[in-house]
Amino acid sequence: MRRLPNVKEKVEFPTKGWSYSYDGNILIFMSGIDFSCNQLTGKIPSKMGNLSELHSLNVSHNNLTGSIPTTFSNLRHIGSLDLSYTNLNGSIPSELTELNTLVVCSVAHNNLTGKTPDFKAQFATFNEISYEGNPHLWTSIT
User: 17, exposed or middle or buried, with CB in 10 Å at 0-12, 13-18, 19+?
Assistant: First the structure.
């Protein structure tokens, strides 16, 4: 059995406009990346889907193009995924419905098209705010 180190640090973890304070052994389980508001351009690298232990990913408010990588379905521990305000296009990969730990998801204000994924599992908990600002994205949320 692997013994966890006794971590006695405290950290502030800002995400989605909130700041959370954590301390103790929980820190070894935390992982998040916030690339928001960095004037990033180009496509989201599909290899980001290999960050399977990631809990939070925020790339919002950038000038990214291309589609949402289907490899994001490998983010099995993701709780917060913010892809809003980035100019992404294409459809939302249906594979994302496999992300059972997803609590917060926003693809708002992009150029997404097609139908939203089936509203099952975690996707059944997201409302129209998660999808707004995509005039060519069809959703059955009422």
Answer: exposed
